[in-house]
Amino acid sequence: MKKLILSIVAIATLSLSSFGQSPEGFKYQAVVRDAGNLILNNQAVGMQMTIQQGSIGGTTVYTETFAPTTNSYGLVNLEIGTGTTTDDFTTIDWANGPYFIETAVDVTGGTSYTVMGTSQLMSVPYALYAKTSGNGAGPIGPQGPAGAIGATGSQGSIGLTGATGPAGATGAQGLAGNDGVGIAQTLSQTGSDVTLSDGGGTVSVNDADADATNELQNLSVSAAGDTLYLQNGGFVIIPGISAANAPVQLATLTTSAVSSLINISATSGGNIIDDGGANITTRGVCYSINTNPTTADNITNDGNGTGIFTSNLSGLTASTTYYLRAYATNSAGTAYGNELSFITLASAALAIGDSYQGGFIFYLDGLGGGLIAAPTNQSASAPWGCYGTTISGADGIVIGTGNQNTIDIEAGCSTFGTAADICANLVLSGYTDWFLPSRDELYLMHQNIGPGNALGLGNVGGFALNYYWSSTEGSNNLAWGQNFIVVSQNGNAKGSANYVRAVRAF
Q: What distance in Å separates the CA atoms of residue 9 and residue 200, rounded to the nearest whole number?
């Protein structure tokens, strides 16, 4: 349908005028413009003129070509009947009309012509018909005026029809017309014919064929008046208006393959290839036990922007089929990637020391949850931070308080690179919910997967024989640390440089 619009625009910018000339042809003038509606001045162009009998698209009775050069106004002057052709112009039976002239142009000067429009010939060919009216049994001309009445003579006989006078000289070139930019025109449809007002011409479209690219569709104009929309999708921005005014589209994205699949969790994600012309405000995956999941089902929220992202799905049911799709939301709405499915593994008992969800399990709560230590140290010389300042809320000791301690430290201590700050900003194996363990959580880490070896597993976590920070504050100057050389916990000056090992809950 976009090709149709471009053709109509080209027709609208072709101004035709024809008038009777010598007996063997007639004059033809045209202003040549490109598809952007700009006049092509002083440029060689190729033109093909076709005379059709009966109707637009009717029987072709004469075809000829020209290779003119436009003048400084973009005007070409042709004499129909004198171009390059294999047809005989004199054999056209002008009495057996109507006749139409089809104009085709190659603006590069070649012979790859594009049809720009077809218009009906009115007075021009009938001057040629009059040329032969005196040969053979032509029609009787109209009665001439009565002669003067003599004094006593009878009325004189009717005189013969006079010969056709010679064609007048071509008039002077008129002033250049409006360039057509910004002029409102009207499209109308009659059957399969689409016509542009103001002499824009007519194009016939066969809407009954199987070709989906040339269907008749309704046009609408944006509120700002700068964009034409097609009924079945697509749009054209009026030249001269920034492409930034193009309507926002839904994002384009794909869903990442499922990995790290166990009985209660899995990892997926997506790749946002195109934001659709607006910022991506939310992205993630949606999943359900039913097909075609949407954001009304279970979702992850994995930030914003384009590109690749990772999503961690948790709380799944063992031995269950799930369906998931990546999603991305912009101002046009929410778009979805391709749908994938997976089946969670059968239930399996987790154990201390297992490698799981980005690290090693060091605590199980008996309800399917627990704590995981990162597989390596995050620092060997980080301070606890904010020496001399008491951090409100960072005094949790027991299991389950480390995460809140870390949140409170981040809120009350703005120093960059502290032990809690390192953990809170850690992204590891796709997980972003790491924190600095509380005093009791750190102790369990030492005992169960560290050199404490209370369960006989050995130093699973590969801990250094040194001091590690907990998130539990002792005073304005001290915070609790764990000595991994011997089983002891001590208050350390907040400015001391100790090891850091992040943990997360599941």
A: 8
